[in-house]
Amino acid sequence: MSLENRFPPFREVAKSSLKNRVDQFSNESPLYPIAKAILDSPIDWERTGGNRQAKQLLAGTVAALHYAYLETGNEHQYASYRTEKDPQRMAKLITTVLDDPTMNPIFYENLGRPYTSISPSRGIPVQYICRRRFGDQPISGVEFGAGGQVLWTQFNKPRFIDSNFPGKNALVNVLGKTLNVNITTGLAIDKQDVRKDVNWAKAALWPVEDKYNGISIDEVESLVQESADKQSQFPFLLADVADPACLEMIQRTMQSSQLDVCATLYVRHELNPSAQNNLLAMITKLLRVRGLWIDIGEELMHRGQNISNNKVRVFEKTRNNRLELIGEPFILKNQRDPILHDLNAFLRI
């Protein structure tokens, strides 16, 4: 039996994956119009390149569309759809690219390219969690699937410290006025380096609101440049977490096998089961006893769950080399805005 007969055409896989993802959004979600428009679009999914990862397909398609606008100097056209709430009118964003002789090949050349997300506000709970557990002690950490390295570089910055969100006052009452974390080394790992193509980092911004993920397109370049300027303290490692050699590469880069914190912010759902197991094994080996694993995006791994709001889950490495759940102190609304969800869980950290 040929491979063509054993596996369904990718267009069928794509449509099924997209429908599952769209069904997870409420009609009120700011992401719904573009998601529904992509599902109903005439995109030729058989022209998808890369590894054809259906799990990344929606976000990757948005990025490929946006990239086509950016590369042709038409960002203003893309930006005009930020307030569009009707999927049928949002469809024009897609057909404009497909019908344009310059944008069309750019879109298809990048459809299937590994997606990179730039969303610094997702790291705000990580700052508070680390302050609660480690206080003033020096710590080192690693973020898997880090995209443009905007987690560790924003620690102790106004973007994290001065951000207001529901429940912040309760946390300040617990932590006091000092919220800084003594982060000595923060490693970012990703399988592509967006510092070499800033437009691909910018392309991660969906056509919603004025500041998708809390940042403007102009801020993306400065964030990426800041990570490049701080390589000594916040190094970047080009690696794939599915690669068994990744663990050794991390240990060699960090010059240590005993880290204080590992973060996986919206990355595990993109991995196949084997890669997920490899990732958890690496985290367990890298963390010291009582070190923390902070994970966001569990809901994206399961069909039928609402993916607009995601719990921030905190695990501790125990003396018997297990990762045990401490609690779920925060929620990210719309995968971006932090909310204190469970103060008692925070106090257990």
Can you describe what's shown?
The chain is an alpha/beta fold. The chain folds into two domains: 3-110, no CATH class; 120-197 and 207-347, Rossmann fold (3-Layer(aba) Sandwich), CATH 3.40.50. Helices cover 39% and strands 17% of the residues. The chain contains 15 helices and eight strands. It has helices spanning 3-6, 10-24, 32-39, 57-71, 75-79, 87-99, 103-110, 124-134, 158-161, 168-175, 198-202, 217-229, 246-254, 273-286, 343-347, and strands at 139-144, 183-190, 236-238, 259-265, 287-296, 309-317, 323-333, 337-340. An eight-stranded mixed sheet has the order 3-2-1-4-5-6-7-8, sandwiched between helices. Strand 7 (323-333) and strand 8 form a beta hairpin. Helix 3 (32-39) packs across helix 6 and helix 4 (57-71) packs antiparallel against helix 7. The radius of gyration is 20 Å and the shape is globular. The N and C termini lie far apart (54 Å). Mean pLDDT is 87; it is low at 1-5.
Proportion of residues in extended strands: 15-25%
Strand order of the largest sheet: 3-2-1-4-5-6-7-8
CATH class of the largest domain: Alpha Beta
Q: How many β-strand stretches?
A: 8
The fold-level CATH name of the largest domain is: Rossmann fold
Radius of gyration, in angstroms, nearest whole number = 20 Å
The largest sheet is:
8 strands, mixed
The number of distinct structural domains comes to 2
Task: Supply database-style keywords.
single chain, globular, about 350 residues, 15 helices, about 15% strand, 8-stranded mixed sheet, disordered N terminus, Rossmann fold, 2 domains, alpha/beta
